[in-house]
Amino acid sequence: MSEHVLVERSGPLQVIRLNRPEKKNAITRAMYLDMKAALEEGDADESVRCHVMLGSPGAFSAGNDLADFLAVATGGEGGQEVYDFLLTLASCRKPLVSGADGIAVGIGTTIHLHCDLTLATPRTVFSTPFVDLGLVPEAASSLLAPMVIGHQRAFALLALGEGLPAQEAKAMGLIHGVVEPAELEGEVFGLADRLAAKPPEALRIARDLIRGPREHVLARIREEAVHFMERLKSEEARSAFMAFMSRK
């Protein structure tokens, strides 16, 4: 594992923590590989009952590292790591509990659509500026978000790029609850411990029934990925990335 993804065990919990606070936990290609490996290893380990995903104080994730996107947009290789991680995330066999504090952009928002319970803080805003960057939604968010929060609010989030504050996200059913920053990790671990203490086979079946078949979710991830890679190499995307990098 890289220094930017910390994977720890806490009893029956596997904790995956984004650890690149100086970049607001922008996710690199290497980090996607690390998260994919951690989910696969945790799923294969019978002693792990629940996955926990966390960021840093003030930043769950600023989304994909735009330097990686710009490299692909200007003719470089890449993108498979994101796709492989998303398929693994959507297929995860064990419950996922996440905690978000502060910045939650792009994949920093859509990752929570695949979590079974998510807590956020009052200062958290979920946002997906895909179209502003010349891109399209990913992680099956174009399927899952409308199912959870309705077409118009999902369109405002995914296409208009309008942010969704944590309290509104809770009211719409996108997340489970809102707690103060100092309480976030304790509350997340409390939920995860409660899940881990339940009969695992009964919990697995209940989770599968609640989530429904994965085939349509995986199919949407694949469909989005085709458009995403095409858009990533478009002039619109190149211009947007270069403009963003020049501002930085």
From TrEMBL:
Could you tell me where this protein is found in the cell?
Peroxisome
> Could you confirm whether the keyword Lyase appears in this record?
yes
Under CDD domains, the record lists: crotonase-like
This protein's source sits in the domain of life called Bacteria
Going by the UniProt record, its keywords in alphabetical order are: Isomerase, Lyase, Peroxisome
Its EC number is: 4.2.1.17
Q: Which InterPro entries match?
A: ClpP/crotonase-like_dom_sf, ECH/Chromodomain_protein, Enoyl-CoA_hydra/iso
GO MF term (any one): delta(3)-delta(2)-enoyl-CoA isomerase activity
A Pfam family the protein falls into: ECH_1
Q: Does the keyword Lyase apply?
A: yes
Q: What class of enzyme is it?
A: lyase
Q: Can you say what this protein is called?
A: Enoyl-CoA hydratase
Taxonomy, top ranks, is: Bacteria, Pseudomonadati, Pseudomonadota, Alphaproteobacteria, Hyphomicrobiales
